[in-house]
Amino acid sequence: MTLESDAELRRVLEYDTIAVVGCSSTPGKDAHDVPKYLLDHGYDVIPVNPFADEIFGREVYDSLADVRDGVDVVDVFRPSDEVAGIVDQALDREDVQVVWTQLGIRDEDAAQKAEDAGIEVVQDRCIKVEHGRLA
Fold first, then answer.
1. What is the pLDDT of residues 23-79, one digit of tens each?
2. pTM higher than the cut 0.85
3. E strands, 61-125, in order
4. Of the residues 39, 56, 71, 74, which has the maximum number of CB atoms within 10 A of its CB?
C-alpha cells in the first residue's frame, strides 16, 4: 500500500540517505532545487544523472545500480514510464527502504512490485513540500 498518512511520511523523512534519480545540475528546475533543499536540511543526497559528472560538488552516478554507497530512499524525478526500470534497479539492491516519486509521477504496477518486495512507496508527492509541512 502506498504510504499517505502524515505519520508514515514523517517516518520516511527520518531516513538519512536519498538517491535522487534524475537530479538536475540546472538551478531553478525542481530536480535541482528539491535535492538542494534536502542537502541543506541535513540529508545525504546522492545525485543520479547519466549526463552530469558533478552536482552540488558531489559525484554523480549514471544509474541507481552504479551507486556504491548505501541508499535509504530513492527519490524519482523521471517520467512515469521510467519508474518500472528504476524500481527494478532498487529491487536489485538490498538497502533501499522507500521509492518516492515526485509530483505527477506514478506507476501503480511498479509500486505494487516494490511493495511486494518489501519496499515502501510514496507516489505523486513532493518530498520538499512534505518535509516542509511535517518536519
1. 999 999 999 999 999 999 999 999 999 999 999 999 999 999 999 999 999 999 999
2. yes
3. 73-76, 98-101, 120-122
4. 74
Q: Which three cell numbers stand for residue 55?
A: 552536482
Phi/psi-derived region of residue 12, left when phi > 0, alpha when psi is between -120 and 50, beta in every other case? alpha
| The pLDDT of residue 1 | 62
The Cα–Cα gap between 104 and 26 comes to 20
For the chain, the domains span 6-134
Give the start-end residues of each E strand in the chain.
Answer: 17-21, 44-48, 54-55, 58-59, 73-76, 98-101, 120-122
Contact 79, 105 (CB under 8 A): yes
- Report the alpha-carbon distance of residue 123 to residue 106 in Å, rounded: 6
User: What Å distances lie between residue 10 and 92, 115, 122, 131, 135, CA to CA?
Assistant: 26, 18, 12, 8, 7
pLDDT tens per residue, range 109-123:
999 999 999 999 999
